[in-house]
Each structure stands twice: as C-alpha cells, then as structure tokens.
C-alpha cells in the first residue's frame, strides 16, 4: 500500500474493500478462485528452452 494517500484515494480504497467484503460474504467459495493480492514487487520468471545438448 502506498505510504501517502490522499483523502480521495483512501475513500476509493475503502469502497473497493467494502465491495470485496460484501461479495465474499455472499460467495464464500469464490475467495480462493477470484481474489489475488500483490505488493510493489514484480518477479519475472523465465526458463529458456534448450536448443541442443549442453
């Protein structure tokens, strides 16, 4: 979560969070299927295919 949020940004996050909570209260089985969280770190994973014997 960003360290410095404006009042409007805080309100938007509260609305989105409440909407998510309301959704999952109605559909408890959806939480593992539909909800993904991330932080500020992006990790790229790439395994190139070999073109011949090493």
Question: Can you describe this structure?
Answer:
With 54 residues, the chain is mainly alpha-helical. It has 2 helices and no strands. The protein starts with 6 loop residues before the first helix and ends in a 20-residue tail after the last helix. 0% of the residues are buried. The model has no long low-confidence stretch (mean pLDDT 75).
Secondary structure: elements and pairs:
Elements: H1 7-26, H2 31-34
Q: What fraction of residues sit in β-strands?
A: under 5%
> Helical content, roughly?
40-55%
| pLDDT averaged residue by residue | 75
Oligomerization state of this entry?
Answer: single chain
* Cα end-to-end separation: 45 Å
Poorly predicted ranges (pLDDT <50, ≥5 residues)?
none
Shape: flat
Order of helices and strands: HH
């Amino acid at each position: 979560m960003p360290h410095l949020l404006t009042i409007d940004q805080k309100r938007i996050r509260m609305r989105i969070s409440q909407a998510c909570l309301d959704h999952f209260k109605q559909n408890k089985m959806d939480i593992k299927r539909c909800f993904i969280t991330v932080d500020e770190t992006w990790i790229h994973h790439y395994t190139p295919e070999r073109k011949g014997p090493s």
